[in-house]
């Protein structure tokens, strides 16, 4: 192996050494911070401190309660339409660029079609009525 090739390998591995040193410094910093927190914090547990805190209301009864599935469907519909909106903005900026006209328009109609089918399904199931 020539001296030039060995020098090239040494500089190649030197970049990884720098990355390794930065990672080790980050891990050491986090370890020191967590260790200092554990050593310096006051630790006096009482029964009041160990109670569950829920917005200033004392816990009463069991911690288990049923939630109607409709609320999860509302959250799911929100996520679907948020993703739709996030996809529409970049598409609108690219649509006018040369070479993206009709193909992106057809793809957007397919995408909006899927969203419309989901909305129609939710409407038919009565999810969008608040009762």
Provide key terms for this protein:
about 130 residues; translocase; mainly alpha
Q: How are the SSEs placed, and which strands pair?
A:
Elements: H1 3-40, H2 69-95, H3 101-124
Helix pairs in contact: 2-3
Question: Would you write up a description of this structure?
Answer:
By secondary structure, the chain is mainly alpha-helical. It has a domain at 69-124. 68% of the residues lie in helices and 0% in strands. The protein has three helices and no strands. Helix 2 runs antiparallel to helix 3. The model has no long low-confidence stretch (mean pLDDT 80).
Tally of DSSP helical segments: 3
- Helix percent reads 55-70%
Largest beta-sheet characterization = none
Q: What is the strand content?
A: under 5%
The helix-strand sequence is: HHH
From the alpha carbons, calculate the radius of gyration and give it in angstroms.
29 Å
Provide the residue-averaged pLDDT.
80
Number of strands: 0
Structure class: mainly alpha
Alpha-carbon distance between the termini?
79 Å
Global morphology:
flat
Spans with pLDDT under 50 lasting ≥5 residues? none
